[in-house]
Design brief:
The complex is a heterodimer of chains A (333) and B (333).
Chain A (H helix, E strand, L loop, with lengths): L4 E13 L6 E15 L4 E5 L6 H8 L7 E6 L2 E2 L5 H10 E4 L3 H4 L6 H11 L6 H14 L16 H13 L5 E5 L7 H18 L2 E6 L2 H7 L2 E6 L2 E7 H6 L4 H9 L40 H5 L5 E4 L2 E3 L16
Parallel strand pairs in A: 3-8, 3-9, 6-7, 7-8
Antiparallel strand pairs in A: 1-2, 1-4, 4-5, 9-10, 10-12, 11-12
Chain B lengths: L5 E14 L2 E14 L3 E5 L6 H9 L7 E10 L2 E2 L5 H7 L4 E4 L13 H10 L6 H14 L5 H4 L9 H13 L5 E5 L7 H18 L2 E6 L2 H7 L2 E6 L2 E7 H6 L4 H8 L39 H5 L5 E4 L2 E3 L15
Parallel strand pairs in B: 3-8, 3-9, 6-7, 7-8
Antiparallel strand pairs in B: 1-2, 1-4, 4-5, 9-10, 10-12, 11-12
The chains are: A alpha/beta (333), B alpha/beta (333).
């Protein structure tokens, strides 16, 4: 099955330079050999701790950062290095939503102009009036009234600003939205409004989402498929139900068991599920990058990097013992 | 372990904000109590008055624009509002500690973390520098910082977010406070680090008998940590109950809505129940019950006057004319 947007052996490495001579002394392997596929009309949730490379992966897929190696394929066509009008065409189909819309909105530009700007850039719409009409319509779609057009970003609450961010991504009528932590800065109640909006828009326009978040509860709610990332690599991926109910990678299991659950009767007991922190991505541990934090690590894990292998139907995990480990069950049911 | 001596008692606390539109109450008639060794979760959306309550207890309100306009704050039986500024300064950081969401706001970037811990102790205790340094290193070790002796020589920017949060906790604990006020201490952290910190706080509570006022909008954190819960809306306490009771029979529509708007890891939900709109600001609150403009159960009566806190069960109070009495359904409000 080939997806609408595919990433094949994608690498995004950032050079590290010595302070004086500016010689390259190493690389931060933010994204390292990632294969991912976004199925049309579905949501892929991408999860991991901060510093695991999930944002870099999102931006690489959106062609905001050049990849170092590998291929990005949109609808069967290689778009890894397209430029000029081909890149413009790519942007019309793939748009991005950011965590903090306030940081991505110019405070001195009216919301209507900020949202409608892309239409002019892409030469869409017959006239200024037509573009304004389209902008008004998209603002309505995200739940903002006519008066939003002529107001400035600071006049809106956090939730409304995220609606503006979504409207701006949708104005070109794209097929794919790459959303990087779109709700993590919001209060729970407002977060629910935005999540519901994103699901409604997906149903109405048949959108495909890459939903990047560190909140596993949110990801579980919105996703069809999930991918767990650790130190630049995908360590587990598969259908949501399979991964959340039966995680096969100890990292996924640890993350799931760390999430606070709003039920005092399900309080976590025993030692913390995931001790320590994410190692420095410029010098990842040898073998399986997770081995220093893994309670099940053996000699093999220190020596050899495990490959992503199928453990159940369409469910892959990169762990030498994925099929054998008896992991303490996560609290997802 | 939990004894019935209130460490902190708020009685009808009112905090007023003076602006060019007049004086408004941002916290209104708030009564709470926390016993020795107890964890009280204080919950609500942004703008509910949670943080102002914390700052009022600490005596850190931005006077003269924001100040306590009524009520009492009793700490270990003594009314803090009758103390001089100097007396309150001596309590802060000594018998009452506070930690914030963003550690960089309370850490000084130009001093090593060890020096800051030493200062925290020597401000209140007549100990030598070398003795204070030994205690600082011991405290860093206690809050789980590896290689504490060398970490004490680091500057805040050299540490990761989770480590900084630990340093801030260590600083708040240097003098062995009887009460720790934690304002969204884990909101910006990954689930793995969050679980580590929550465990740390619970261990300290157990070892030192410290009471904790845990301010958060995350009901998951409350369920993991708290003994009892107070829910605030628009400056008023709307519900308080022991943690088990609150999650089993949430009585206030706002509490139910907060629970319904959370995506959950342990329960599959089809659609989140968003609370439409946002908390109205202090100068524009509706008459009567301030939640009525967002409440699904609102009746004409709710506009008439503010409902009083009514006793429902042992330790369970609710401020609503139409409280729910049935158990929370697994997924819907």
């Amino acid at each position: 099955m080939s997806g609408l947007l595919e990433m094949r052996e994608l690498r995004t490495w950032f050079p590290q330079r010595s302070p004086i001579l500016r010689r390259t002394i190493g690389h931060v392997r933010a994204v390292d050999q990632v294969d991912l596929s976004l199925a049309a009309g579905r949501t892929l949730g991408l999860v991991g701790e901060s510093g695991c490379g999930k944002s870099t992966l999102g931006r690489t897929a959106a062609r905001l950062i050049e990849s170092t190696e590998g291929t990005i394929i949109l609808d069967g066509k290689d778009v890894t290095h397209v430029s000029g009008s081909d890149l413009m065409a790519f942007r019309r189909r793939v748009q991005m939503v950011f965590q903090d819309p306030y940081a991505s909105l110019n405070p001195r530009i009216r919301v209507g102009d900020a949202v409608g700007e892309a239409l002019a850039i892409h030469g869409l719409g017959d006239s200024r009036l037509d573009r304004r009409e389209r902008t008004r319509a998209i603002l309505h779609k995200v739940g903002l009234g006519d008066d939003a057009m002529d107001r400035y970003p600071h006049e809106f609450s956090g939730g409304q600003r995220q609606r503006i961010g979504i409207a701006r991504a949708l104005i070109l009528n794209p097929e794919i939205l790459i959303a990087d932590e779109p709700v993590s800065a919001l209060d729970v109640s407002v977060q629910a409004q935005v999540i519901n909006l994103m699901r409604d828009l997906q149903a109405e326009f048949g959108l495909t989402y890459l939903f990047i978040a560190h909140d596993l509860s949110v990801v579980r709610h919105i996703s069809d498929e999930v991918a767990i990332m650790y130190l630049g690599r995908i360590v587990e991926t598969g259908p949501k139900a399979s991964v959340f109910r039966n995680p096969r990678h100890p990292y996924t299991n640890g993350l799931l068991r760390s999430v606070p659950v709003p039920d005092p009767e399900k309080r976590r007991t025993g030692p913390v599920p995931l001790a320590g922190g994410v190692p420095d991505p410029s010098s990842p541990p040898a073998g399986c990058a997770f081995h220093p934090r893994c309670p099940y690590a053996s000699e093999l894990c220190r020596a050899e990097r495990p490959k992503l292998e199928e453990v159940e139907s369409r469910h892959h995990a990169a762990c030498h013992f994925a099929k054998d480990l008896d992991l303490e069950s996560p609290r997802a049911t | 372990m939990v004894t019935e001596t209130p460490v902190l008692e708020l009685e009808e606390l009112t905090v007023g904000i003076r602006s060019d539109r007049g004086v408004f109450s941002a916290v209104e008639g708030l009564s709470l109590s926390i016993n020795k060794g107890e964890v009280l979760g204080l919950v609500g959306e942004s703008g509910c008055g949670k943080s102002l309550t914390a700052l009022a207890i600490m005596g850190l309100l931005a006077a003269p624009a924001v100040r306590v306009t009524g009520g009492h704050i009793r700490f270990a039986g003594q009314d803090l509002l009758t103390l001089s500024d100097d007396q309150r300064r001596r309590l802060r950081g000594d018998r009452i500690g506070m930690i914030f969401q963003e550690p960089m706001t309370s850490l000084n970037p130009v001093y090593t973390v060890g020096a800051q811990l030493v200062e925290a102790l020597r401000t209140h205790r007549p100990v030598s520098r070398s003795q204070a340094w030994r205690e600082a290193v011991a405290m860093l070790d206690k809050v789980g910082i590896p290689a504490a002796a060398s970490r004490a020589l680091n500057y805040p920017h050299e540490l990761s977010g989770g480590m900084r949060q630990r340093v801030m906790i260590a600083m708040a604990l240097m003098c062995g406070p009887e009460l720790l006020i934690a304002d969204e201490p884990t909101t910006a952290l990954d689930v793995s680090t969050e679980a580590q910190l929550l465990d740390l706080l619970l261990a300290l509570r157990r070892d030192l008998g410290m009471a904790i006022l845990m301010i958060t909008h995350d009901l998951g954190v409350v369920a993991e940590m708290a003994d009892k819960v107070a829910v605030m809306y628009a400056g008023r306490l709307v519900e308080s109950a022991p943690v088990g009771e609150l999650f089993k029979v949430p009585a206030h529509p706002y509490t139910r809505a907060l629970l319904g708007s959370m995506p959950r890891l342990d329960v599959e939900t089809d659609r989140l129940v968003a609370i439409e709109g946002t908390v109205s600001p202090p100068h524009a609150r509706p008459s009567g019950c301030s939640f009525r403009d967002r409440c699904p159960k609102a009746q004409p009566r709710c506009a008439g006057h503010v409902p009083v806190l009514e006793h429902l069960a042992a330790g369970h109070e609710v401020r609503c004319f139409f409280p729910s009495v049935e158990h929370a359904a697994q997924a819907s409000p």
